[in-house]
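seq as requested:
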Amino acid sequence: MRQSAERPTTRSGAHDGSIATRMQSMEMPGDMATKSKPRAARRAAAPAAPRAAARTGAAPRTAAPADTAPEADAFAAAATDPADAFGSAVGDLWKSMSGLSLAPERLAEMQGDYLRSAGDIWNQSLQRFVPAAGGPAAPPALADRRFAGQEWLSNPAAAFTAQMYLLNARTLMGMAEAVQGDPKTRARLRFAVQQWVDAASPANYLALNPEALAKAVQTKGQSIGTGMRHLLEDLRKGHVSQTDESVFEVGRNVATTEGSVVFENDLFQLIEYRPLTAKVHERPFLFVPPCINKYYILDLQPENSVIRYTVEQGHRAFVMSWRNPDESLAAKTWDDYIEQGPLTAIRVIREITGVDRFNMLGFCVGGTILATALAVAAARGEQPATSVTLLTTLLDFAETGVLDIFVDEAAVQLREMTLGEQAPSGPGLLKGKELAATFSFLRPNDLVWNYVVGNYLKGETPPPFDLLYWNGDSTNLPGPMYCWYLRHMYLQNELRQPGKLVVCGEKVDLGRIEAPFFVYGSREDHIVPWMAAYASMPLIKAPKRFVLGASGHIAGVINPPAKGKRSHWTNDRIDGRTPARAEDWFDTATEHPGSWWPEWAKWLAGHGGRLVPAPRAQGSRSHKPIEPAPGRYVKAKA
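struct tokens:
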């Protein structure tokens, strides 16, 4: 079987490309979204529908904060009626859309450019049909990889279609870029135009794709039959296959690090891993992965497993394997995920190991959950962490990349009215397939249409790739938990404000966490832009270190040292001072070749404590092994 860090077997046309391209495609780039003014100035902080303060962690609001935009008053006036508030939010959105305009002189310039380019394409096409004395004109090369196949170049009609499509696409995107309006509305317009442009590509349609037609002729129609079977299988599964899923099985060739489930509750199983060294650091290590995905992104295969690497460094490792929620968990809240999640895991690890303070890591939203839990513990007078590692994590949600276009008062209220605690039909689940489809369409050419062409039009099976297998293994989320997260983190950005949020009955202040922090960001990450990851630094009052890695949200993190790929940046020139601006940190940072893992391992070893004999078995008398890792929670499908 091909290993995940190697280049997969490539296929012609749309499926060509390196593993780096595939992994980068997963990062959901935000090239369509723009940096805009601070959220407080561009978002209406509308009062939400009344919620039970004990469950949501915040009392109902009756007035818009003073630092919000003037349009927030419209929502404040409708505070007592969720439907009116939602209507006001939609009305404000409509007004922002109706305020868009395109300067006449810019439009005239674009029209002129379009006509000239269209004329050039037409003349080039005529020269191929009516060659000059020197012989037929050479077909123009098309830089877009969708049209890189020889069939596109050798067929004049197909070449003309592709060139005109690319011209139309450039023109439409140029018009979207030139539109005048507020930044967020312009970003949404660009996103919508990009979706339409990508879907309209002639490569996506059998009758217009000369590569697919040529293959159908060569195989005497077999490729079309195979493509139809792939389509029916994907309809049954509910998603477009991005890899050969038959190759992988959780527990057989992904998530294979040996260990045991030593605790479980409604929300997670706690896995303890078998030591791989004769001695281990006396302080255990807890991984808190994101609950919107499955934990084995940290344990794909032995050669690219973050978990196995940590165990090999002599750490007694535990990981939370979140349950894939079903209807029985639809009412779970953010408070539940904190109290019954990391805070419970910390208690159980203390009981198993007898160690009160130990090292912890949170990845993506898992880092947000972990930081919140530690702030709750601090408010209760406890400091359970010896060190905290945050990987591509948001604590300050001022800049959230491309995901920002989906978040405003109207969108959040719509979710609250359909999935939240006060929904008329009761709390519901945010389906994992909906989340997965949303993320895929953030990069439709690479994560949707690429596979439509290869799987269905050409009848090809995508090559096996463990990371894409994990990407397609989606999870559900409880509606109340998700709605609370959207409102208080993404919309109102309250986690960064000391004492603003009340979680599990405690006021949250990240500055009260005393453990040192290792904060990691990925330079090409568009889910958690690296500058947004760096924005956590001013919120942390304890000693802290920031490291920047190359590539994106996933590919930057999963970068084992043995492969010698990519690079990372550190900054040891700031003499203990942390610049307020990420740009200032980067200006004096030093780039190093290879993975950031050894840098982190060295830092972590300094917080692991002395070496002691490794435990002979997992668990303890009070927490006996329940089943072998990876456990059954991770195997539940959405």
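Residues 104-129 form the longest helix (26 residues).
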